[in-house]
Predict the structure.
Amino acid sequence: MSDGARDNGDGGNAHTDEAALSARLKRLSERLARDQAGRTSDGAGEDRAATASGYARGLRLSSELVAGVVVGAGLGLLVDHWLGIAPWGLIVFLLLGFAAGVLNVARSAYAKD
């Protein structure tokens, strides 16, 4: 029905409205493209930094767990060698090293940085 009203004599006005709408749409798309480009360059650096920070934290936590197990196994082997009670020293100290590693990971993970 609105197309019929335009044909009756509002052809010039409809053309002006469409031109104004097209101009507004073009300005809006240019503004959005500019804002998107600004966010992409800033956001990429922040995302990269957050990812690197996450990798560093994960590496630190995993190394603390592995270090606890390795130290426990080393102490267990030394106790076995000195006391001649193989493999009980290794088993006990390996479990203690694992528990110490998990405790260190939990402390580091929940500590406020």
Q: What stands out?
A: The two ends are 66 Å apart (CA to CA).
